[in-house]
Write a structure and sequence with these properties.
Layout: H1 3-14, H2 23-44, E1 51-56, E2 64-66, E3 77-85, E4 101-102, E5 104-105, H3 115-121, E6 128-132, E7 135-139, E8 150-156, H4 167-170, H5 177-191, H6 196-218, E9 224-228, E10 234-238
Parallel strand pairs: 5-6
Antiparallel strand pairs: 1-8, 2-7, 3-4, 3-8, 6-7, 9-10
Helix pairs in contact: 1-5, 2-5, 2-6, 5-6
Length: 239
């Protein structure tokens, strides 16, 4: 279902029309549950929906960088998974792509020295980073600026839906769109001051659909797949 169809289905289930629950109110409620459901998927399953990678230029002697913006109308980072850095401009022979070293995420409070020590002295063959507020901090600091010298991987936020949002643009599993329908039903009953038992029943329906959706994602059939990497090291990866 696309956004318009989800709202229409909710109106059929609750038996209301557009005069009782207009599109503007429905979109506000739908975007709330979209973010909540998306966070539940990321927190409770190994799904990497809306995965992306970004590149940004390093700045000489700068350790702090801003995480890509999260806003209702953008699709930037919701969850930062990795930070990789190129310190010397070295590239691969054939592709000319920069060679990045993946930094290790650390807790700066567990380090024996102050963070500034590592900004200055950490080996550029073993970079580290941590995240605080809306920034990530890397060590050692780049000595020279390199275009696209930093690569991030992470999960993008889903931009807020509009009535014209297509099924593919929704980014949520199609099988679980009924979770969104159930939440809209809760919000309508709350706004119309329905009897408490009606709201409670609808909340129970929503929670049941949410649990089913998460369980379905967690219990997918897993098959081992073997890959031979350039290092001739054979690893087992479970899909």
């Amino acid at each position: 279902m696309n956004v318009a169809q989800i709202i229409a289905k909710m109106r059929r289930v609750v038996k209301v029309d557009t005069s009782q629950y207009d599109d503007d109110d429905a979109l506000i409620d739908l975007n709330i549950v979209k973010d909540r459901f998306y966070s539940s998927i990321l927190s409770n399953s190994k799904e990497k929906l809306n995965w992306e990678r970004w590149k940004t230029s390093s700045v000489a002697l700068q350790s702090e960088y801003t995480i890509p913006e999260v806003a209702s109308d953008t699709a930037w980072a919701k969850l930062l998974n990795s930070v990789s850095i190129n310190y010397n401009g070295e590239t691969y022979t054939d592709t000319w792509e920069l060679i990045y070293l993946q930094a290790k995420e650390i807790d700066p409070t567990t380090l024996p020295n102050d963070w500034d020590y590592y900004v200055e002295n950490q080996s550029d063959e073993n970079p580290i980073y941590y995240v605080a507020d809306n920034s990530y901090f890397i060590a050692p600091v780049p000595r020279t600026a390199i275009t696209n010298g930093i690569k991030l991987t992470g999960i993008r936020k889903i931009p807020d839906y509009t009535l014209s949002t297509t099924e593919a643009e929704m980014k949520l599993p199609i099988d679980h769109h009924n979770v969104l329908v159930e939440w809209l039903s809760i919000e309508w009953h709350r706004e119309k001051w329905s009897e408490p038992w009606i709201v409670d029943n609808q909340e129970a329906r929503y929670e049941r659909e949410l649990r089913k959706a998460i369980k379905m994602l967690e219990t997918r059939v897993e098959w081992p797949t073997y890959f031979l990497y350039p290092s001739d090291q054979e690893d087992e990866i479970t899909l």
